[in-house]
Amino acid sequence: MDFKVSAIDTCKPLNNEISNLPAQNAVTIQTPTVPFNSPYSTLGRHLARRLLQIGVTDVFSVPGDFNLTLLDHLVSEPELNLVGCCNELNAGYAADGYARARGVGACVVTFTVGGLSVLNAIAGAYSENLPLICIVGGPNSNDYGTNRILHHTIGLQDFSQELRCFQTVTCYQAVVNNLEDAHELIDTAISTALKESKPVYISIGCNLPGIPHPTFSREPVPFAFSPRLSNMMGLEAAVEAATEFLNKAVKPVLVGGPKMRVAKASDAFVELSDACGYAVAVMPSAKGLFPEHHSHFIGTYWGAVSTAFCAEIVESADAYLFAGPIFNDYSSVGYSLLLKKEKAIIVQPDRVTIGNGPAFGCVLMRDFLAALAKRLKHNPTAYENYHRIYIPEGHPLKCEPKEALRVNVLFQHIQNMLSGDSAVIAETGDSWFNCQKLKLPQGCGYEFQMQYGSIGWSVGATLGYAQAAPEKRVIACIGDGSFQVTAQDISTMLRCGQRTIIFLINNGGYTIEVEIHDGPYNVIKNWNYTGLVDAIHNGEGKCWTTKVYCEEELVEAIETANGAKKDCLCFIEVIVHKDDTSKELLEWGSRVSAANSRPPNPQ
């Protein structure tokens, strides 16, 4: 394993990132010992301490008979908070949201019935490059290799089904069924999650967490990873080629992509933007990774559904640098972007490709961007063009007294709620498009799940994000169809004393799917959503709900949520017309529908 011993204080995460420490900072230290056979020299204790060391102070869990002993040991760790969730899917989504705010997350479930339930959330975290520790309470170690049939399995003597499922959505799998190598397996799994920025799977035999073992007799030495380094010759060659490519362009632009997060390159991208003076846009899934108050920020580049005047500037440029892009059918609006490969520099976390070639491997994005910032000529031409053609966005038509509330009016008021102390969670659906148009103040968080796009993700993610960042007031925008998938963990938000504001947008169905392909299956049973949340509240915890039909009621609700009920979970059900959607969804839906319905290629 690739880490060095280092002092505890130097290993604490800084700015929600796990530090990469240079070798010269490494020192040998004496770690405290605990007597063998002490209740602290156990696998469960070791795992709890490891989670705390990497910055996880909250673990999302659902109990089951295979993980109960392990949960006892996690509960007994004073600094670790066990958050019980209503189901495994939401526990996984919560760990996802927690990782977005804290840098890493963790969940604990039981064998197979719990593991396969959380699997969808782990796949989503994998797609979004989030380090997540998925811990499963496994069978008794004596049952391996016995050909016994166990409960919670599919009834076969081979009960490796869960492991095989996780192999495709995690970067490392550890099955701990003896104490001799448990220390190594657990440490390797956790360190791999941090280094690869992907989920890992750890299965721990249900009879092992409480047994002392000599390998756990010391306080675990904190992780300190050897830093990843660029190939300096490759870096210099890539910077030289990119400098020549961009400096001869007349109106080059920069576009930030979602992989800037995993590459930890957001600061370097800002440094490059400051130095070169280019117009700067972000892809939709990179919203929040670049400061929107930056003087040369021009908005979200999303092809035909970009923010106003952004696509015109990007697609008319004679050179563009994309930092960490993902070009899928959703981000490319059904593969309809008007980009040319020969004009593009594509910078991935460890690789740079310039036009149709050449390509440079073993070049880290943050190193490349920082070096390039020192070499580019200042060229504000594209931004000046944007400034010339830009026309400020209009405001929604003023509502008549008691007129039915419109979605664009709702988001006008949400815009006014944002500050550096807030964070926005956007659910899959029309909230994607409406939230993209929000202008984020400095320090305002923003998260949504674009690559995987699992409806219902935002309820669990809101729970996890709010738990990881209690200093922020989370504002979640959730459609009624998505809410019906994962509504139960409103209960957990109340148990945790969270003060999130949830806007439940009730338009009677799966609106995003209506715009891709309509049918009767997109109409859902209407719930009394405020009544449901009141029932879940049941007089325990701080909760306030209301239902709004018009702008006057919305204004009053927001004033209450920010005033008298500012310390409560506030649930605001917004009733809107079923056909009230953003114009961007209408355009995007038709293009994605066209991409989905392409006929088979001739054989």
TrEMBL record:
Record keywords: Decarboxylase, Lyase, Magnesium, Metal-binding, Thiamine pyrophosphate
Domain Thiamine pyrophosphate enzyme TPP-binding: 449-573
The Thiamine pyrophosphate enzyme central domain, residue ranges: 239-358
UniProt-listed Enzyme Commission number(s): 4.1.1.1
Keyword match Lyase: yes
EC class (word): lyase
Cofactor note: Binds 1 Mg(2+) per subunit.
One BP annotation, GO: aromatic amino acid family catabolic process to alcohol via Ehrlich pathway
Residues given in the record as Mg(2+) binding sites: 480, 507, 509
Family from the record: Belongs to the TPP enzyme family.
Quaternary structure annotation from Swiss-Prot or TrEMBL: Homotetramer.
Protein's UniProt name: pyruvate decarboxylase
Organism: Nicotiana tabacum
Lineage per the UniProt record: Eukaryota, Viridiplantae, Streptophyta, Embryophyta, Tracheophyta
